[in-house]
């Protein structure tokens, strides 16, 4: 069984308070100092930590309040990583229709180096705010993000004539960061990854073939090896979960399709303890891929939408948990919102009250189904 099991969980990002959005804008414009920004970050993080504890959660994050983006702040802190417009165009979808968007690509301009720890200070500050008995959680973007949006063309051929050398250096960077954060007492790490969901979508799988010039199934195995190498030196008492995201911006999403195309690799070829998977709507398919989950791994069912304000009923959530338990034992399951509430500064189209009610519902259902959180 996984080293740490939480029956009520969450992906980690929360709606940014209006005050925090304002001071971050002021900071970028040079109107306030880093110290003034940090003071507001500290205060609003204490408030979001209290919210999580008050609703009964045991896993506590800083809401990603010190970040502009769930991924960019981390990846661009690696020496020789920059962002430029990608040639990969994606179609975000919402209840209102489609919105075509070209996300920034991450480009490797030279040999990768980790000059300093990236989120070490973030975690240390969070740890001081969390009450005894709670577990502070750090989320970081998956190492696969450095490859997927630009592929071979995004990696300097001068620095990395052979792609395996690039993958080896990415893994080394992650090993160094994970070792450093583990030394501060981090026992729960979450890896956030959008690329596995792309590999589930038939249309996007075709994009992978044309864009990356690789077969999707081979990409999945390459990424599994990269993630394994990246976490290979984690301490035995560190629990690692991976969140598979289908896109999350302004209540929009990108990828659709069940987990079937990647299930065997996802569940059996990665040395992680658990998964936070999205199943809030039928765009994620059914629960049949869970038959590939081996004993000892936890699957956190993302059944509660973080995109829409409507509150899910307890009966509906319990029914869906029962459906999932037909394919994997109930003791290997948990529940959470399907994604974070605010992967960037904009946030999803819900209110802070909606956010709280969603978290309370997750805790309520977990307590009734499993007898605790």
Strand content: 15-25%
Low-confidence stretches: none
Give the biggest sheet: 6 strands, parallel
Bulk shape: globular
What structural category characterises the helix and strand content?
alpha/beta
Task: Could you tell me the CATH topology label.
Answer: TIM Barrel
With strands numbered from the N-terminus, the spatial order across the biggest sheet is 7-8-9-10-11-12
Domain count: the total is: 1
> Architecture in CATH?
Alpha-Beta Barrel
By DSSP, the count of extended strands is 12
Number of helices: 12
Mean pLDDT: 91
Helix-residue proportion = 25-40%
How far is it from the N-terminal to the C-terminal residue, by CA? Answer: 16 Å
Cα radius of gyration in angstroms:
19 Å
Query: H/E order of the elements?
Result: HHEHEEEEHEEHHEHHHEHEEHEH
CATH class: Alpha Beta
Please sum up the structure shown.
The chain has 373 residues and is α/β, with parallel strands linked by helices. The protein is built from twelve helices and twelve strands.
Key terms:
12 helices; globular; two-stranded parallel sheet; TIM Barrel; alpha/beta; 373 residues; six-stranded parallel beta sheet; 17% strand
What does this structure look like?
With 373 residues, this protein is of the alpha/beta class. It has one domain: Alpha-Beta Barrel (TIM Barrel), CATH 3.20.20. Helices cover 37% and strands 17% of the residues. It is built from twelve helices and twelve strands. It has helices at 18-28, 34-55, 72-75, 120-129, 145-148, 163-183, 195-198, 202-211, 216-230, 263-268, 314-324, 352-370, and strands at 59-60, 79-85, 90-94, 97-101, 104-113, 135-136, 138-141, 188-193, 239-244, 274-278, 298-304, 333-337. The strands form four sheets. A six-stranded parallel beta sheet has the order 7-8-9-10-11-12. It has a two-stranded parallel ribbon with strand order 1-6. The longest helix is centred in the N-terminal third of the chain and has 22 residues, at 34-55. The chain is globular, with a radius of gyration of 19 Å. The protein starts with 17 loop residues before the first helix and ends with a helix. The model has no long low-confidence stretch (mean pLDDT 91).
């Amino acid at each position: 069984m996984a080293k740490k099991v939480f029956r009520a969980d969450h992906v980690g990002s929360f709606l940014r308070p209006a005050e925090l959005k304002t001071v971050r804008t002021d900071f970028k414009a040079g109107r306030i100092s880093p110290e003034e920004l940090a003071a507001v970050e500290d205060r609003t993080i204490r408030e979001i930590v209290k919210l999580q504890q008050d609703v009964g959660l045991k896993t506590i994050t800083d809401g990603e309040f010190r970040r502009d983006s769930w991924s960019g702040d981390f990846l661009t802190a690696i020496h020789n990583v920059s962002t430029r417009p990608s040639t990969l165009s994606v179609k975000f979808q919402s209840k209102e229709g489609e919105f075509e968007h070209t996300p920034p690509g991450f480009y490797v301009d030279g040999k990768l180096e980790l000059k300093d720890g990236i989120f070490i200070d973030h975690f240390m500050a969070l740890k001081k705010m969390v009450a005894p008995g709670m577990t502070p959680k750090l989320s970081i973007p998956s190492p696969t993000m450095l490859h997927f949006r630009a592929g071979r063309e995004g990696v300097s051929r001068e620095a990395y004539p052979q792609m395996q050398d690039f993958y080896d250096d990415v893994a080394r960077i992650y090993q160094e960061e994970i070792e450093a954060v583990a030394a501060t007492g981090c026992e729960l790490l979450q890896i956030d990854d959008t690329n596995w969901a792309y590999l589930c979508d038939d249309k996007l799988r075709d994009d992978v073939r044309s864009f990356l010039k690789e077969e999707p199934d081979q990409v999945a195995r390459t990424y599994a090896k990269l993630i394994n190498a990246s976490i290979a030196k984690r301490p035995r008492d560190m629990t690692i979960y991976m969140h598979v995201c289908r896109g999350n911006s302004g209540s929009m999403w990108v990828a659709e399709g069940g987990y079937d195309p990647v299930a065997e690799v996802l569940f059996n070829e990665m040395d992680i303890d658990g998964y936070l998977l999205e199943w809030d709507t039928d765009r994620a398919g059914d629960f049949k891929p869970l038959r590939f989950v081996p004993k000892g791994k936890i699957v956190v069912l993302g059944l509660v939408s973080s995109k829409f304000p409507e509150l899910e009923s307890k009966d509906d959530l319990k029914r869906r948990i029962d459906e999932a338990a037909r394919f994997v034992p109930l003791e290997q399951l948990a529940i959470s919102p399907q994604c974070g509430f605010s992967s960037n500064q904009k946030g999803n189209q819900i209110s802070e009250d909606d956010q709280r009610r969603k978290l309370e519902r997750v805790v309520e259902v977990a307590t009734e189904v499993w007898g605790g959180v």
